[in-house]
């Protein structure tokens, strides 16, 4: 997955679930439209921390 990749999901629940999953793999996204998000940064695999779900929730941002 590359920076700038647009990801379209089937609904809000799918969008949020996908954003959480990507974040857990070090891929940061921002919401850009209805059921759509964009990859804005990617951490190297060695720098991906083991976040608990509460910390991951705080890291998700809505544009």
Q: Biggest sheet, in brief?
A: 3 strands, antiparallel
- Radius of gyration, in Å, reads 11 Å
Helix percentage:
25-40%
Percent range for β-strand residues: 25-35%
Number of strands: 3
Our count of helices gives 2
| Distance between the amino and carboxyl termini | 20 Å
**Side-by-side strand order of the widest sheet:** 1-3-2
Shape summary = globular
Low-confidence stretches: none
Order of helices and strands: EHEEH
Class derived from helix and strand content: alpha+beta
Structure description:
The chain is of the alpha+beta class. The protein has one domain (6-59). 32% of the residues lie in helices and 27% in strands. It has 2 helices and 3 strands; from the N terminus they run E-H-E-E-H. It has helices spanning 12-24, 53-59, and strands at 6-8, 27-33, 36-42. Strands 1-3-2 form a 3-stranded antiparallel β-sheet. A hairpin with a 2-residue loop joins strand 2 and strand 3 (36-42). The longest helix is centred in the N-terminal third of the chain and has 13 residues, at 12-24. The mean pLDDT is 82.
Structure summarized in a few sentences:
With 63 residues, this protein is α+β, with helices and mostly antiparallel strands.
List the helices and strands and how they pair.
Blueprint: E1 6-8, H1 12-24, E2 27-33, E3 36-42, H2 53-59
Antiparallel strand pairs: 1-3, 2-3
Characteristics of this structure?
single chain, alpha+beta, globular, three-stranded antiparallel sheet
């Amino acid at each position: 997955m590359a920076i700038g990749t647009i990801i379209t999901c089937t609904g809000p629940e799918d969008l949020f679930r996908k954003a959480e999953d990507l974040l857990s793999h070090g891929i940061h996204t921002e919401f850009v439209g209805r059921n759509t998000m964009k990859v804005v940064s990617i951490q190297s695999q060695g720098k991906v921390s083991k976040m608990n779900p509460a910390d991951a929730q705080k890291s998700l941002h809505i544009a």
